[in-house]
Amino acid sequence: MKPTHKTLAAYQKSYELAMKIFHISKKFPPEEKYSLTDQIRRSSRSVCVNIGEAYRKKKYPKDFECKLSISDAELGETQIWLDFARDCGYLTAEEVDPLLSLADEGGRLIGYMINNPGKFGVGKS
Fold this sequence. Notes:
The chain is mostly helical.
């Protein structure tokens, strides 16, 4: 089977995080629907989307790095939204901490991809 973005550990961890956020954010109050709930879902999903786009752009090293950089920035945004969800009392520290750990792991994997593009076939036709 040909490797795809779905075979990347960074994608898998980020997708897992996005799905966990989707489910846990269902309990946010209705007044957060168009702010916190929408924003945290968007940023967490964007991490995965940009990893997928980076993988598709691996023929172009600068595009690959740019998309991964965006992915990493979206991951940082997601972590901040998780802090808000905890500090606003919508989630407990026990709910947020594992999500932040998963985000940290995803961030390390994205960083590895940025620092080792050749291992992902970047620049090859």
